[in-house]
Amino acid sequence: MKRACSILKLMFIALLLSQNTTAYAEAIEGKHYDKIKDDFYEESLGVEKFFSLTCRPCWKLSMILPNISKQSQQHIYKTHVVFDDVTRSAATLYYSATVQNKDLPDDFIRELFLLVQASAPMTGSSVGNLFTRYQLNPISQLTIEQQARVNTQLARSERLTAQANIMQIPSIIINGKYQINMRPHKSISELSETIKYLAELKNSIS
Question: Could you read off the pLDDT of 72-108 as tens digits, one per residue?
């Protein structure tokens, strides 16, 4: 089945604007999150945001991610999905940057999103210029060791995208076991509480 970015713009606008501080009850399975049937607990990095540079809602989530991370008291790792040639190409761009700098500036990520999603065809020179401006080597100049790390990341992303049966992005998965359902959360605070709650279940292996 062909995957596509889920149209979640209204939900993200609501999260951006909401300042709801009302007490939030414990997250409910089947409503706020679902268990992943074929989990990848052993390979999980903890709290992971699965996204694609080709996905507009993914960029909207990126803008509020620091706030979510702060409120949930969890570091949120970023994993680029791979389920077709388009997302593989985008993931190659992303990982070619992260193997050189694991703490990429927000401005670089924003420009990379814009470049990939631009209506004009993306060229090697435009990508190279972007990388150079942020003191990153172009993809063609990666070392053999860096190329190997990119390939390792691509293989992991493709494997987990299929294993978790990720059908929409962005998606937040906790400890390889729990997938957040975005829509029922009415605020950043609620989403953060669910993430924190599920992260603390890491020692509860089912």
Answer: 999 999 999 999 999 999 999 999 999 999 999 999 9
- Among candidate residues 102, 155, 122, the one with its CA nearest the CA of residue 54: 122
Instruction: For the chain, give the longest Cα–Cα distance.
Output: 52
Distance in angstroms (rounded) separating the CA atoms of residues 18 and 139: 40
What is the token pair recorded at 191? 């989403």
> Mind giving me the DSSP string for 15-42?
HHH-------PPP-BTTTEEE-TT--GG
Residue 8 confidence class, pLDDT cut points 50, 70, 90: low
Residues in Cβ contact with 33 at an 8 Å cutoff, skipping those fewer than 6 apart:
27, 174, 178, 179, 180, 181, 194, 198
Paired tokens of 163: 């294993």
Say which DSSP state 90 is in.
Answer: H
- Separation between Cα atoms, residue 47 and residue 23, nearest integer Å: 23
